[in-house]
User: Which sequence fits this backbone?
């Protein structure tokens, strides 16, 4: 995967040996422009583009731009829809088929008992229903490890990769939230899980050996 911009000579690339890149834009004007391009507005001619020569990529759905890492949304509609499909698939699998049917029978029996206990004048239709309808009723949702900020972010990346189909994560200003040792753990987690990340920063916070980087200074010179 690679990222290009008409105003940047160097391409930013991700591969099996490099899963994290940093783009430092010290010019406030150009930084605002880059942020605007991250909206991937297809009605305008794109200056910033993301390519994958092996698989096509749709930046508007395959790229997650994160402005506030302390308020990560684990339960986006796309994630929940995929999760529900997985729950239904597992519930009717060979391992759970009998248990699922017994559970559904108990629910119908319970509802009938409630109806029959009073003269309600209606009856329960025993139409078939799927396990995702039960999960929605009890507010089935995903949570991350809120006691460890690095693990919380890592949990989010895993959920959004596996359930949300995200292929590239762009963090805006993330290094400002991380201590040096936390950044080291974050980089290791990305390497272990093969997740691709771009750190978009407006301040040069120093070189990290495992992070490839491109620096655009205030005079728009590329370093």
Assistant:
């Amino acid at each position: 995967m690679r990222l290009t911009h008409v105003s940047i000579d160097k391409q930013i690339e991700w591969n099996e040996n490099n899963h994290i890149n940093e783009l430092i834009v010290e010019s406030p004007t150009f930084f605002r422009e880059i942020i605007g391009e991250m909206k991937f507005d297809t009605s305008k001619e794109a200056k910033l583009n993301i390519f994958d020569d092996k698989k096509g990529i749709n930046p508007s759905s395959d790229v997650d731009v994160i402005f506030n890492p302390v308020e990560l949304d684990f339960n986006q509609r796309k994630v929940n829809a995929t999760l529900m499909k997985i729950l239904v698939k597992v519930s009717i699998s060979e391992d759970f088929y009998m248990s699922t049917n017994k559970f559904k029978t108990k629910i119908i029996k319970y509802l009938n008992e409630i109806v029959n206990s009073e003269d309600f004048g209606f009856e329960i239709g025993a139409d078939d229903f799927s396990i995702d309808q039960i999960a929605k009723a009890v507010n089935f949702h995903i949570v991350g490890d809120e006691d460890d900020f690095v693990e919380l972010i890592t949990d989010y990346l895993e959920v959004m990769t596996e359930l949300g189909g995200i292929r590239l994560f762009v963090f805006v200003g993330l290094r400002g939230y991380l201590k040096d040792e936390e950044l080291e753990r974050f980089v290791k987690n990305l390497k272990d899980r093969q997740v691709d990340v771009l750190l978009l920063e407006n301040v040069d916070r120093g070189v990290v050996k495992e992070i490839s980087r491109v620096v655009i200074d205030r005079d728009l010179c590329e370093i």
